[in-house]
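TEACHING EXERCISE
Course module: macromolecular assemblies
Task: Read the component lines below, then compare them to the predicted structure of the full complex.
Student: A.B.
Group: 4
Components provided:
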Amino acid sequence: MQTNQHSLPIIIFFISTIIGVGIVTLPRETATIVGQPNMWISVILGGIVAFINALFLFMLMKKYPLKTVFDIAPELVGKWIGKLLNLIFVCYTIAISAYIIRTMAEIVNYYLLDKTPKFVVLLVLVLSCMYLVSTGLSNILLFLQLYFPLILLTFLLLTLLSIKNIEPTHLRPILYMDGIDLLRGVNSTFFSFVGYELLMVLSGQYRLTRWKPVVFILGISIGSVCFIYVLFFILNIGVLSIEELKVITFPTIEMAKAIEFQGFFFERFELLFLFGWIITIFTTLTAYYYSAMLGVCKTVNCKKSLLMNAIIGLLILTLSLVPSGITELFSYGTYLNYLSYASLIAIPLLLFLFSFRKGAMK
Amino acid sequence: MKRRRFGRSSPTLLEEQIKLEFHNSEDLKQKTIQLNGLTLTLLYLDDISDRMVIQKTILSPLLTISSEDTKIIPTDIPDLIPMAAVNNISDHSTISRHLMDGCTVLIARDTTEDHVYSVKTTYSVKRSPDEPVNEPTISGPRDGFIECIQDNKALLRAHLKTSDLLFEQHFVGKDVVTSISITYLQGKASETLINEVRERITQIEVDYITDAGVLEQLIERNPLSVFPELASTQHPTKVANALLEGRVALMTDGSPTVLIAPTTLNMLLQTPDDYYFKWIPASLIRLLSYFTALISVLLPAAYISLISFHHGLIPTSLAVSLSKTREGVPFPSVIEAFIMELTIEILREAGVRLPKPIGSTVSIVGAIVIGETAVSSGIVSPMMVMVISFTAICSFAIPNYQLSLALRTIRFFFLFSASILGVYGMLIAIFIVTTHLIKLRSFSNPYMEPFAPIHFKRWKDSFIRLYYRVGKRTGI
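Instructor-supplied answer key:
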């Protein structure tokens, strides 16, 4: 883990997992809560909170090298309560997968395929993801590495092409602070950094035991995601203005839509951006899908099999088809946040406290 | 055929047993001469041995000596024959293999024992090492491998003048034995790789091998994949380059094709020419070959999805002119694309099968009759003809034929998914194909190296070729 060569795949894993739906919906969510041009400060604060939380998770996992959260929960709090905690975590990963792919289906329906039923759109995505997950974690990491430069390239292109559309007046007043609002914004920006908790799953196969490399990995991953978010916030505000952000459902895509190529085969940039963005959704889905499968297999003590894989896929697919429309989908988002609180803070905290008790008993 | 064992204990003489093994074939010639103190029997296959050589180097020196009064003992024989290589055959079961290589087998018999020697007297008809037809180069060496493994080894030696070059001979096949040579540079190729290749070769159980293509399918581990697990080439320079990178080459007797393991997608998109030009144009050519590979897979699918799903994404003026050209075409664009693709594939196959002088007829028929007339009669739109033929030309530009075959195959998968779900379907198809490529291993080596796992340092010899790689190779 010391060398760059070994931490690069894990950094890529975290960045690809964290970047997902947030990049297209977060500007709107934050704009409705904070409502001022400096709301990107909330993103940085959210990133810091996420980083601290990630360090806390590592503090827990450091005690149990080469074990996942699914292994240590039954060990620490007893078999059945541990299994229950695992189940909550699995529910969380399945719910978050369902949520992101449903959001993607809405976007695909809105921008690309207006007549295709969502079921078909989601089915092919889950099936192809099932294939990738069945190849195992090391191949998943390889897959993420292959697409990572492409994702960055898409974001870079979007940034470069959007710069000329920025209206500087939209960005003013600069550094006008409204502390309370910014702090309230953290509540929503924090959730867009969700993905680092898979550290608790990744630690099963990669020896993450020393502070220095892990702090480096987490710092680089959360830091660069933070940078990308801040960049996109500024671009979004600059191109669309705060007032517009509040009413546009998917502001970043609208921003991409504003870019026009003259005299090229396709007129608008949104197609290219959607290409890159669907890749990020796919990578996020893969990471959570894999975690869910691993969790279920560890909890009920079975081998990773195609059947298990298919069951998880079916669960994600059914759950993603539950909301009837986009408003309902976003209202489910709040429930998802509760689940996140449980899996990101409550469960690890509980395990952490119990780990002391166990240590004292020994 | 069961292999018989030879030995003094068996009732008949050794030469009789060999003759029996060859079913008393006409061309197995035997000549027995009496020397002082021993009987010498010469056995050779008439058509593949050079009679002049036998006479000059074996018969006349021995007869000269026997006319003198010295007594000859069997172990003297190798010294009496003025040839560089006289092999002592201790394992009598290999005699027939020596005979089939064109060697003359000498059985020297004194009162106690048979001493068997073989002398190389091969005479064979070979073609010259011409430039490979399917891998032309612009500059650089123009020699190509031929059907004889000895000459191929010689060619490789000529290109790699180093003592580290090793050939490891293996024999494969139950009915007909084919010799296969594992070739590598000692110190460059890793021991695990060589062992893996060796293991796969020894595991082969097959009646006979006719060509390197058969060998390739016997040792690959992903028979369901369309992508080649081993690179094949007829260029000695290509093999030399691969060996210098620490790869292993497999030479098959009787085949001008040499297999290289492990291979990567990156490697299949390179040509030796890239290294002979200055790095800026060479890098652009590399980029171009990556681009053509992408185009040859994705263009028809992208066109179909833009035309039938996302008109809104095409600029208005282009959309108008496109819809004008599609006026009166009776089929949906998907069917149109499949018809054209199929036509191109048939034309291409016909072009390959036909003898060269008639081959040009196919292109004329294809271009004028089918292309022009189909458009003017309104069966397909001119834009579709353009897209499909441009795709075909792009797939011709791919340096490796096996890869271009693979890409041709998956093009239909992309076309199919684009016709169902447009750009989104295409993207899903890309996910599936890349998952497959990620999963693929060529002799335990990831197929998508250096892109996954990422090796930024090796990117300088991937879709670009940077300056300082000249004359320096960094292994696999």
